[in-house]
Fold this sequence. Notes:
Elements: H1 2-20, H2 35-54, H3 61-72, H4 78-85, H5 89-101, E1 105-109, E2 117-121, H6 123-144, H7 149-169, E3 173-175, E4 197-199
Parallel strand pairs: 3-4
Antiparallel strand pairs: 1-2
Helix pairs in contact: 2-6, 3-6, 4-5
Amino acid sequence: xxxxxxxxxxxxxxxxxxxxxxxxxxxxxxxxxxxxxxxxxxxxxxxxxxxxxxxxxxxxxxxxxxxxxxxxxxxxxxxxxxxxxxxxxxxxxxxxxxxxxxxxxxxxxxxxxxxxxxxxxxxxxxxxxxxxxxxxxxxxxxxxxxxxxxxxxxxxxxxxxxxxxxxxxxxxxxxxxxxxxxxxxxxxxxxxxxxxxxxxx
Length: 201
């Protein structure tokens, strides 16, 4: 019994040494070797820069997208915003509460149906919304500036082709917002879109 207890630490020590030496049989991978991984890193950096430029407007990534949907007239209620941003109704309600507190959005109860609450931008919210597209386009242009106009057109075409093929190449239902591969139709119910139904925002 004593001998077995004395031998166990040596075995554990050997295992630790093996782990410290790594597993050479497992292939090492680098983000720069995988286009999709690299695109994710680029997207993360771009999003961070957009958020930084949104700070003077008092908007975060989660907030400026709903604000833009309201400004475009594509959404009018919390249910509309929940569907378009893939948020649950509860999460969207909390987000709207914060925007109301900031003076960006205001609620208006319908005179025809008191159960319906419409959302609209305040003057401050509308002023902020007018600046959002230029900020997003400015960051996008800066990130893609190393490409020539022809290269940019070609690159964009490649991305669109990959994106539109995703319902067939991956087990994810992708929905383009402008009539793409499986663009969503207008929903008349007030339910949030189920998870897994991805959409470009």
